[in-house]
Amino acid sequence: MELSMKPLDSIESATRASQLLRKSTPVHETGFQDALADALKTTSALGKEAGRLQDEFTLDNPTVSLEETMVAGQKAGIAMQATLQVRNKLVQAYSDIMNMQV
């Protein structure tokens, strides 16, 4: 079955076209848990990298600049703040759900 570039003249051909498109473009569905785990791993990695760069800069490593160290620290700080905000929203949502009357 081949998808042509002709105008779609019926609902049946539109349905076939959408089915072909769905089959040809794989969709990687990830759940909220996976997205949250990935975000936490990224936040952890950014923090570790900032700490490593800070240690290297403190030891006068000539390949590590102050600017690079400061940018890594800011990235880690922003990631941590975003993580805390997500956690606060999740706790608030859980609290709201638990306080609902059934």
From TrEMBL:
GO terms for cellular component: bacterial-type flagellum basal body. The keyword NADP does not apply. GO terms for molecular function: cytoskeletal motor activity; structural molecule activity. It comes from the Bacteria. The keyword DNA-binding does not apply. It is found in: Bacterial flagellum basal body. One of its GO terms (biological process) is bacterial-type flagellum-dependent cell motility. Keywords: Bacterial flagellum, Cell projection, Cilium, Flagellum. Belongs to the FliE family. This is Flagellar hook-basal body complex protein FliE. The gene is fliE.
